[in-house]
Design a protein that fits this description.
The complex is a heterodimer of chains A (229) and B (816).
Chain A (H helix, E strand, L loop, with lengths): L1 E4 L2 E6 L3 E4 L4 E4 L6 H7 L8 H14 L5 E4 L12 H13 L4 E5 L2 H6 L8 E4 L2 E3 L2 E3 L10 E4 L4 E5 L7 E9 L2 E3 L10 E2 L7 E5 L4 E4 L17
Parallel strand pairs in A: 4-5, 5-6, 6-7, 9-10, 10-13, 11-14
Antiparallel strand pairs in A: 1-2, 2-3, 3-4, 8-9, 11-12, 12-13, 12-15, 15-16
Helix pairs in contact in A: 2-3
Chain B lengths: L2 H11 L6 H11 L4 E4 L6 H13 L9 E4 L3 H17 L6 E4 L5 H9 L4 E4 L1 H8 L4 H5 L4 E4 L2 H4 L3 H16 L4 E6 L5 H9 L6 E4 L7 E4 L19 H9 L4 E4 L3 H14 L7 E4 L5 H13 L4 E4 L14 E5 L5 H8 L11 E5 L3 H16 L12 H13 L3 E2 H8 L10 H13 L14 E3 L2 E3 L3 H9 L9 E6 L4 E6 H6 L5 E4 L2 E9 L2 E6 L21 H15 L6 H5 L1 H10 L7 E9 L2 E7 L4 H16 L5 E6 L4 E5 L7 H5 L7 H11 L2 H12 L21 H11 L4 H14 L2 H13 L1 E6 L8 H5 L4 E4 L3 H14 L10
Parallel strand pairs in B: 1-6, 1-7, 2-4, 2-5, 3-4, 5-6, 8-13, 9-11, 9-12, 10-11, 12-13, 17-21, 22-26
Antiparallel strand pairs in B: 14-16, 15-16, 17-18, 19-20, 20-21, 22-23, 23-25, 24-25, 24-27
The chains are: A alpha/beta (229), B alpha/beta (816).
Chain lengths: 229, 816
């Protein structure tokens, strides 16, 4: 799905990333690498394996297009507990395989809590990037100078209403001066958003990105509290 | 004066004589036996259980041989404490009585740690909590006896399993302690006794008087013409309820949900403002102070009516009332008897329950319940079989409380009835789960919950022990947010999802107060009393399983309908619903013996098929999922499924061309287990099941109201947890348990198999109706739906989006 932003084409990808052709930049947000290790450190045995999938998905995305750089819009790492030797080793190995691509992290709240990233990851860090009229940052910007690409919200959208079937999907949220990316990490939850008032919603299925029209019955109704609803 | 003389005098002083079953229980206790006491409510069970220890120890009882009294409801504990203390005082005994529950203040706990009372009243959870503290065994090893109150409430669920394991621990610590269960009438007393006392016990079963003489009356609308076919509030009958309430000095009004109790409380106050201050509200999401106040007020007769949920279900021996109301479906025979038992304690009076239907069909349920009570047809309660979530929780409790050796614990755990056939493989997995996470060696980096030191399993990290203690228990609770006034003072709790949707200034009710949201800070929603404005306040909805109609009741409801089809209107309730059932007959049919009724109806939502086997909601969910899944194997299609106690509905956007043959073909028995397993995994029901299991097993940290922020980083939605486990560890035993539990007690496997056999043996009658029939209507308006689909996610989403676009013209002309 391609959308036009300030005269440039931005491609929204079903892998929960965005591709900026003009600068050959791949954008992702909220990867939360090592979140499972953070849980293990707190004595909660969730299955491992998520980060291998996430790193592999990043590799596939980079391989499929002439990417010059990867910009992570914050929350690359989950916490300081996520920085285990195994996580460090796996990301270093991934980074070695992707040596030809520049990786820039726009720090998010989780990154700040985690401390400095290992040097072997070769990830440069900053708090925001401004390029022409484009701004890359973690959290949405209320001041809105230029067009903002951000994450942080983990947006998802609920489809269906009334008596029919329903779905809940991660989504992109496009406002006149802002694009919020869905959370990239496999081990991340979502916060519901609804279309309307200048918000366009692009839902991500496993194989496509589909725009959700501004439809009635999309405001949360009483049945949104119903069990299993 | 000997103790027995004192007891006899005490009875005589009240004009009573000990009943035969009470004497039998005392004598068994004096002989050092353990057992189960079964008696109807209000017949003196508590005295039967209490006076055994009194007769054995009399004046000699001191704190070195305490009595432990386990009650399932902390709401009861205070009540029980007062009554036990009063009895002991009147007997002239210097025994001390204290309570220790989740509501007990830290100051009191600290004192109890130093000095135990003679009788300590506690809950299963609080007892487990004591096992999680290293200093416990010394105290518990001196117990003279244990009483488990209201065992019928525990025997069939996981809290009961938790109690079984705690009792297994006590048996190991103190083999001589006598253990007595106290229970209302249950279907299989011998098994209930073994579940309590362990698989190799030789229990005494003492039976008291049973009670079948309770009076069940219904409040019926003057005219059924405008009475709803579906619904859940029942407020249409408010005036009649108030009229009945005026005749009683005290009454209890039971509702089936917390939201419903809030609405009834508001409605009563609106209709009778003069009752302000003399009616009260009691449910599980209110602050403990508020609950305690209500319990005391009820005991002293300071309130005329308490609107309540199952939070006041128990405690039948004390605080009797004049009239008990039941709003909405009775759900089960045993539960209704239990509730009715809170009234009619005066000599010469029988318990009486006034039933208030919220829709027409509930009148049939009440009629069916009356006949089931007369026949003594109670629901069976099966203890859960070897639940792994409870096992791992118990093992971490033991590990935190000083540690355990695998060999000893294996022997001990297997004495508990539910684990008598625990396999060695499951046991080994449980040990691995708490030490290394349960996966193949080394896969769970940094994971350490329990360490093995010289063969002893121990929790060595203080924080792990602390967190574990916060999550002990088996009561399903949703992430909740504490509600408190800005100026201070807690009111209760609402679910996080509800709190998150509130905007500043939104009004809602809680605990009977109308509140205005001010701000949400961490896990506290600050509110202020709302100024009196006309706009209706919101009513929070709390999750919580919907209780299905029991099999005993469901088949009797079907029986009533079959009678009606033959023109038999056996009682006033059936006569009242005659109009509705005749409409059903005119539009479609009533179920007839040997037949199963099905209907198809087209609507703007798509094509509906309704099937009515009358086998209870649990079985219908299973049947619906199975039917949908089997049909979806033949072509890409998506079904939305609804089920209730009478039948189920499948809704498809495109016409599946329903025929008798197509439906009948789905009932075959081939590959039943495989198909059920497959449709289970597809469905969303298993996610909710897994949530509870994950919580008990310590995979979900919910924190608690007012928790520190550090909990946030490990909070995770159960849906996400289910997804990652399904994807990354599909063979995980806890997923297996979720599927097994779904099969066994959600779908009630045996009933499902029976229902399938019944469907195959019956003639299926399929009727096309132009509009929804009265039977279909409750299914159509049910908002709780599941999906079974064989379409790709993308196709499903495309269809949803297309439908939403089609709806657009509806809104034309509507001001936005």
């Amino acid at each position: 799905m391609k959308v036009s932003i300030a005269g440039h084409l931005v491609e929204l990808l079903p892998e929960k990333a965005a591709w900026l052709e003009a600068t050959r930049t791949l954008l992702v947000a909220d990867v939360h690498v090592g979140k499972e290790s953070h849980f293990h450190a707190h004595a909660i045995p969730v299955p491992p394996g998520m980060r291998h999938d996430d790193l592999a998905r990043l590799s596939r995305l980079l391989a499929a297009r002439p990417a010059r750089r990867l910009v992570v819009l914050g929350d690359w790492i989950h916490s300081r507990h996520a920085l285990t030797p195994e996580v460090e080793r796996d990301v270093t190995a991934w980074r070695t395989r992707q040596a030809g691509v520049e990786v820039v992290l726009v720090r998010g709240n989780h990154d700040r809590g985690a401390g400095r990233l290992p040097a072997s990851w070769k990830i440069s860090e900053c708090d925001r990037i401004e390029e022409h009229e484009w701004v890359f940052r973690h959290e949405p910007d209320t001041r809105k100078t230029g067009f903002v690409f951000c994450g942080h919200q983990h947006p998802c959208v609920r489809l269906g209403y009334g008596r029919g079937p329903r779905e809940r999907l991660p989504c992109f949220v496009l406002r006149p001066r802002e694009l919020v990316l869905p959370a990239f990490g496999s081990f991340t939850g979502g916060h519901p958003v609804w279309p309307g008032r200048g918000r366009r919603i692009f839902a991500v299925t496993d194989s496509s990105v589909l725009e959700v029209g501004e439809a009635p019955n999309h405001e949360p109704g009483p049945d949104d509290y119903a069990p299993g609803g | 004066m000997s103790t027995i003389t004192r007891v006899e005098d005490w009875f005589a002083g009240r004009g009573w004589t000990p009943l035969a079953f009470q004497r039998e229980a005392w004598s068994a206790y004096q002989q050092g036996r353990s057992g189960l006491l079964i008696s109807a409510t209000g017949t003196g069970k508590t005295l039967a259980a209490l006076l055994g220890p009194v007769l054995v120890h009399g004046d000699r009882a001191d704190i070195s041989h305490p009595l432990l009294w386990i009650t399932p409801m902390r709401a009861l504990a205070a009540d029980l404490e007062r009554n036990v203390r009063r009895t002991l005082q009147e007997l002239g005994l210097a025994w001390t009585v204290e309570t220790r529950t989740g509501d007990t203040e830290n100051r009191v706990r600290a004192r109890q740690a130093k000095q135990w009372p003679t009788v300590l009243i506690t809950t299963p959870e609080s007892l487990c909590l004591q096992f999680s503290r290293p200093e416990h065994p010394e105290r518990l090893a001196t117990l003279q006896g244990v009483v488990v109150d209201e065992w019928h409430e525990l025997v069939g669920n996981k809290r009961g399993v938790l109690t079984q394991l705690a009792l297994a621990r006590l048996r190991a610590l103190r083999p001589d302690a006598r253990v007595w269960g106290v229970s209302a009438t249950v279907r299989d007393p011998e098994r209930a006794a073994l579940a309590l006392l362990g698989s190799d016990a030789d229990p005494v079963v003492v039976r008291g008087p049973e009670r079948r003489d309770l009076e069940l009356v219904t409040i019926r609308p003057a005219s059924m013409e405008r009475f709803p076919w579906a619904g859940h509030l029942g407020l249409r009958l408010l005036d009649a309820v108030i009229a009945e309430m005026e005749l009683a000095a005290t009454s209890l009004l039971f509702t089936n949900t917390r939201a419903q109790s809030e609405q009834w409380y508001q409605a009563l106050l609106t209709a009778r403002p003069d009752w302000a201050g003399s009616i009260a509200l009691h449910h599980g999401s209110l602050d403990r102070e508020a609950r305690r106040w209500v319990e005391q007020a009820l005991d002293t007769g300071a309130v005329r009516c308490v609107v309540c949920t199952s939070s006041l279900d128990l405690g039948v021996d004390f605080a009797p009332v004049d009239t008990v109301f039941q709003v909405g479906s009775p759900k089960g025979v045993a539960r209704l008897i239990q509730r009715a038992g809170r009234s009619g304690h005066q000599p010469g009076r029988t318990p009486r329950i006034v039933c208030v239907p919220t829709h027409a069909f509930e009148l049939i349920e009440f009629s069916a319940a009356r006949s089931a009570i007369a026949a003594g047809d109670l629901e069976p309660c099966e203890p859960p079989v070897a639940p792994l979530d409870i096992l791992v929780q118990h093992l971490v409790t033991l590990a935190a409380g000083g540690g355990f050796f695998a060999e000893d614990a294996w022997r001990e755990v297997r004495t508990a009835w539910s684990y008598r056939s625990l396999t060695e493989a499951d046991w080994k997995w449980a040990l691995a789960f708490i030490t290394s996470g349960g996966a193949a060696l080394g896969a769970y980096e940094q994971f350490r919950k329990v360490d093995v030191v010289d063969g002893c399993y121990r929790v060595t990290k203080r924080r792990v022990a602390q967190w574990h203690r916060m999550h002990i228990g088996a009561i399903a609770a949703d992430a909740s947010v504490r509600v408190a006034y800005v100026r201070g003072g807690g009111i209760g709790a609402v679910e996080e999802a509800f709190a998150a949707r509130l905007k500043k200034g939104d009004r809602f009710t809680l605990g009977g107060h109308i509140l205005e949201a001010v701000r949400l800070v961490d896990a506290t929603l600050f509110v202020r009393a709302a100024p009196n404005r006309a706009k209706e306040p919101l009513v929070p909805r709390w999750m919580g399983g919907r209780i299905p109609l029991s099999g005993a009741l469901a088949s009797r409801v079907r029986g009533r309908l079959e009678e009606a089809a033959r023109g038999g209107w056996v009682d006033e309730e059936m006569a009242a619903v005659r109009d509705v059932l005749e409409q059903q007959q005119a539009l479609s049919q009533l179920p007839r013996p040997g037949e199963v009724l099905a209907e198809t109806t087209a609507s703007r939502d798509g094509v509906h098929v309704f099937v009515y086997p009358f086998a209870g909601r649990a079985v219908h969910e299973g049947l619906a999922a199975l039917l949908a899944w089997r049909i979806s194997r033949t072509r890409p299609i998506t079904f939305a499924i609804a089920a209730n106690d009478y039948g189920f509905e499948l809704l498809a956007a495109e016409d599946p061309a329903w025929t008798v043959e197509a439906l009948a073909a789905a009932w075959h028995e081939d590959d039943l287990e495989r198909d059920i397993a497959a449709c289970l995994h597809d469905g969303e029901m298993i996610r909710r099941r897994f949530r509870e299991i994950a919580r008990i097993a310590g995979l979900i940290f919910e924190g608690y109201p007012g928790a520190r922020k550090s909990f946030k980083s490990v909070q995770i939605s159960s849906g996400l947890l289910f997804d990652v486990f399904s994807r990354y560890e599909p063979g995980h035993p806890l997923l297996g348990q979720a599927a097994r539990e779904m099969r066994e007690d959600i779908f009630e496997w045996r009933r499902l198999v029976d229902a399938l056999a019944m469907l195959r043996a019956s003639r299926l009658r399929l009727v096309a109706t132009p509009v929804f029939s009265p039977l279909a209507f409750p299914l159509v308006v049910d908002r709780m739906r599941h999906r079974i689909s064989s379409e790709s996610l993308e196709d499903r989403v495309r269809r949803l989006l297309a439908r939403m676009m089609r709806r657009q013209p509806d809104r034309e002309g509507v001001a936005v």
